[in-house]
Amino acid sequence: MNTQLLLIQVFNGLVNGAFFALLSLGLAVIFGMLRIVNFAHGALYMLGAFVAFALGQAAGIGFWWALLLAPLIVGAIGVALERGLLRRLYGLDHSYNLLLTFGLTLLIQDAVKQIMLTRYSVSSAPYTIPEQLVGATNLGFVFFPTYRLFVIAFAIVICALTWYVIERTRVGAVIRAATENPTVTQAFGIDVSKWVTIVFGFGVALAAIAGVLAAPIYSVEPYMGSELIIVTFAVVVIGGMGSIAGSVITGFAVGVLVALGSAIYPPIANTLVFVLMALVLLVRPNGLFGLPEAR
Predict the structure, then answer these.
(1) Domains of the chain, with CATH numbers?
(2) What secondary structure letter does DSSP report for 178?
(3) Which residues of the chain have pLDDT under 50?
């Protein structure tokens, strides 16, 4: 593999890594704070893409407004799911949450499939790249699609802001306290249930952001999150369950690993992720960046 092809594959990997990072970040936030294994995360990622598409079809809302509104709408759906369903399972074995969110995955996917077939008469729909990001940018060694560079940069900004808010601000301190020691936090007059809902909704909104960003690249279809979520769970395990920084770093690294594997020997590209996961777990059972709270 020559240097130019290697660099192209690295950038392609960073694009996929951006989606892995955003999705695994949402999973890490939800699990690290709430100890909920949200198997519906992939379906909610798809829902973000579908809502962006539906907003465009129904009201002519373009990419930029959809990038704001779709995560808010899907985040609100996440809040409703937490309030109406997941909250009833707190204190029970994690398998109950897993089974519920798996059921929600099937329900969301089938609902979107039926809506697309009956209302739009398609099973998969393209989503237009915004005019400002059409074309390619000269990186010196190759012309790379401008939109894909935007995806990388935007994902890095969102991940960095999330880490900063949770780890370095008073709001983040309240969130961590409310979820790690709810009894003491409640004694200080803080409404713990409100913060639990906010954290879950925020984690879901991160998945929706990834979905909106992915729509112009992969198109919108009901099962677009099915395979991606499996790799994302592997990313979370490799990085360390509940580790925000670990999820982001590992997400981008896995994206690059898969891209390089695809260039060298395509049949093993996706397998590499799970080989890496097995090796990491043998050496560090808590993941590369595993936090004590998540052990």
Answers:
(1) 3-294 (1.10.3470)
(2) H
(3) 293-295
- Compute the Cα dihedral for 263, 146, 211, 239 and give only its sign: positive
Amino acid 19: pLDDT? 96
* Spatial separation of the C-alpha atoms in residues 148 and 206, rounded to whole Å: 18
Phi, psi of 220 (to 5 degrees): -110, 120
Half-sphere exposure of 203 (CA within 13 A, CB side): 32
Q: Is 158 helix (H, G, I), strand (E, B) or coil?
A: helix
User: CB count, 10 Å around CB of 206?
Assistant: 31
- Which tokens sit at 28? 């890490």
Nearest to 240 by CA among 294, 200, 279: 294
Q: Helix or strand or coil: residue 265?
A: coil
Tokens of 114: 């039926």
Q: Which amino acid is at 104?
A: L
CA distance 112 to 109: 5
pTM (predicted TM-score) = 0.93
Whether 40 and 101 have beta carbons less than 8 Å apart is answered as yes
User: Kindly report the CA angle at 281 between 24 and 89, in degrees rounded to 5?
Assistant: 50
DSSP 240-292: -TT-HHHHHHHHHHHHHHHHHHHHH-GGGHHHHHHHHHHHHHHH-TT-TT--G
